[in-house]
Write a structure and sequence with these properties.
single chain; mainly alpha; 2 domains; about 70% helix
Amino acid sequence: MLTETWEIYKNASEAESSDIVEDDLLSHVFKRRRTESKDELKSYLSEPTMHVKTNVLLWWKVILIKLHIILIIYKILIIIFVFI
């Protein structure tokens, strides 16, 4: 039932985003890539599960470090795009 609901939502979302006319500069610069994207639900469901004895706090610490690095890269890219 979850996957059927997701398919309905995903198809409605894709149809809605294809109706948007992108004619101004910002939408041109920041438009979505027209590449084939992964299905978010399938990607989530295919992730391996954690072992019961996993230290959850340590796991989150590692994830937050990765996310912090991504955030720094994102900020640098925004600065580059703003000043170019």
